[in-house]
Design brief:
The protein is α/β, with parallel strands linked by helices and about 450 residues long. The protein contains 15 helices and 16 strands. A hairpin with a 2-residue loop joins strand 2 and strand 3. Helix 1 packs antiparallel against helix 14, helix 2 packs antiparallel against helix 9 and helix 9 crosses helix 14.
Length: about 450
């Protein structure tokens, strides 16, 4: 049951205080996440769990009394992992050490009996090219470039090495490698291998080689053993398979605007996840926070001027099909999305937002910064927004991404320890409130248009 307050008589500061208070004392995001994570679990695109998540989130949105809730069909890839992968380092005949690996999403399987071969370690594609076919053919290429630990913005560290995961197999196959092992995208040393998407591009099927991630502890071990003995071999076996595309859905709910119903504000996260954990941080947190934005607006007595949509995108992890489909249909219908906000950086303490917009719009946002200061929200920067809202970009709208504290995010990202117990209730609820506050401001004031040439001259 919603408890309404008279927002029209309140200042922005008072409305935002109500939003935060409501989220922290009567939030729903944590309980929603508990169910999504523990009762449904990992939600790989095309899987049964992904379909369960579609059905459950639609039911929950229906309960909120929104003006409209619907499913948007989208065809998604279906990749399956198969039975658990197995790997070991062999330093001498009969002397082996088991290591932790996982297949990368989209990889082919190894032969039925697995692969055992000598290993060549590199940290870049340039090193691989310098070695040439003569030193690589018939071997397993081990990409061991770590995330750069002294970068405070951890997404920069991730971006600095993720190409070895995404394109490593294609590059190694050029030189006759039989397989690829990639150091997990993780800033700490632990035993969790981290999966993630990889692509073969236009490489013929018969030339595709299996690709797996190895935990950071075991990457260190393998590197050390190779330095001691260059003839050290690695064995690995995986049973993954790419099947035909299947139908899935984006889940969409809407509060219709009271004054400008044809101006849309979108808030969302991606409903799919990898299959090793339950996807609580990536991106269950973003899903439930986005759902709670609409609930918190209603609970706080806000009657939106513009139409507010929550979109739970399918297939961000290995295809971006949901985001692409949503943007295509929005364009076909001529829908004017003035603002889109994404949460896909974990359920940690919110620090602020990254904005993709004009300087004029960014100055508008900066004028609101003081309203977030009491909640320790200080990060307002022009930067990338998010993968799922990216396709909605126009020359006049504003895209944004919630930016939580990221120092622990890559400890869990795409790994089996991305689980509900790793999410703090208060941090998650602060994120939901922070998103709601920004949506409220854009709904109240709209987006400043970019000045035309004549106005700039004035």
């Amino acid at each position: 049951m919603f408890c309404f307050v008279l927002v029209g008589a309140q200042t922005d500061k008072e409305v935002i205080k109500t939003i935060y208070s409501t989220s922290l004392t009567n939030g729903q995001s944590y309980e929603w996440l508990r169910y999504l994570s523990n009762q449904i679990g990992g939600r790989l695109s095309g899987s049964l769990n992904a379909q369960k998540a579609v059905e459950w989130t639609k039911e929950e949105l229906d309960k909120l009394g929104l003006d409209r809730v619907w499913l948007q069909p989208v065809m998604v890839p279906k990749w399956v992992r198969g039975i658990k992968e197995h790997a070991y380092i062999e330093s001498a005949a009969g002397k082996s050490t088991t290591v932790n690996i996982c297949a990368l999403g989209g990889s082919v399987a190894t032969p039925a009996l697995g692969i055992k071969a000598n290993v060549v370690e590199v940290q870049s594609f340039e090193e691989l090219e310098a070695l040439g076919r003569g030193n690589v053919e018939g071997k397993i290429v081990f990409f061991n470039r770590p995330m750069q630990a002294d970068l405070i913005i951890t997404y920069e560290a991730y971006g600095g090495c993720v190409n070895q995961r995404y394109s490593g197999a294609v590059e190694a196959a050029k030189y006759g490698a039989v397989g690829v092992i990639v150091r997990s995208m993780n800033l700490r040393l632990d035993d969790f291998p981290h999966t993630g998407s990889m692509k073969y591009n236009d490489l013929p099927v018969e030339k595709r080689i299996p690709s797996a991630a190895i935990s950071t502890n075991d990457a260190e071990l393998l590197s050390t053993m190779l330095k001691l003995d260059g003839q050290t071999q690695l064995y690995f076996k995986q049973n993954c398979k790419q099947l035909k595309d299947v139908q899935s859905y984006n889940v969409i709910g809407e509060i219709t605007g009271s004054e400008y119903p044809n101006e849309y504000i979108l808030v969302g996260g991606h409903l799919d996840s990898w299959d090793l954990g339950d996807g609580s941080h990536d991106d269950g947190a973003g899903v439930v926070q986005s759902m709670d934005v609409l609930r918190l607006l209603k609970e706080s007595g806000v009657k939106p001027k513009r139409s507010i949509r929550v979109v739970l995108f399918m297939n961000e992890e290995n295809g971006l099909r949901g985001a692409t489909k949503y943007a295509q249909e929005a364009k076909q219908k001529g829908e004017n999305h003035i603002f889109a906000l994404e949460s896909d950086a974990g359920g940690f303490t919110p620090r602020g937002f990254a904005f993709d917009c004009s300087d004029v719009s960014f100055n508008q946002v900066l004028a609101w910064k003081h309203l977030f200061k009491p909640y320790l929200i200080h990060y307002f920067e022009k930067a990338g927004s998010g993968a799922d809202v990216g396709p909605l970009k126009t020359s006049t709208n504003v895209l944004a991404g919630l930016r939580p504290d990221s120092q622990r995010y890559f400890d869990h990202h795409h790994a089996s320890n991305d689980t509900f117990d790793a999410v703090n209730k208060r941090e998650l609820e602060l994120g939901a409130a922070t998103m709601t506050a920004l949506v409220y401001l854009f709904d109240t004031y709209g987006v400043n248009p970019i000045p035309n040439e004549s106005e700039l001259k004035k």
